[in-house]
Specification:
By secondary structure, this protein is mainly β. The chain contains no helices and 5 strands. The chain has one domain: Beta Barrel (OB fold (Dihydrolipoamide Acetyltransferase, E2P)).
C-alpha cells in the first residue's frame, strides 16, 4: 500500500499514515490511521510528509506495520 506519514510517535512505537483503500485489511475507503510498528527502529528513517510504501497486518493489539519504505 502507499501512503503519507502524518505523525511519528517513537516513544509509543506508533506511526500515523494517510492511505488509500486497503483491501487486504478490509478497508474499502482511504483514511488516516495510527499503526503500531513491528520494529521501532524503522521510525528513525522517516519524517512527517514522507511518501511511503508499507505492508500491515491485523494483530490482537491492532494494526501493525510490518514493512515500511520511502516511495520513489
Amino acid at each position: 500500500m502507499t501512503g503519507e506519514v502524518k505523525k511519528i510517535d517513537e516513544r509509543a512505537e506508533k506511526i500515523t499514515l494517510k492511505h488509500g483503500p486497503a483491501k487486504s485489511l478490509g478497508m474499502d475507503e482511504g483514511m488516516t490511521m495510527v499503526y503500531r510498528v513491528k520494529d521501532p527502529a524503522m521510525l528513525k528513517q522517516f519524517k512527517v510528509g514522507d511518501k511511503v510504501t508499507f505492508e500491515a497486518e491485523e494483530a490482537a493489539s491492532g494494526y501493525t506495520v510490518t514493512k515500511l519504505q520511502k516511495s520513489k
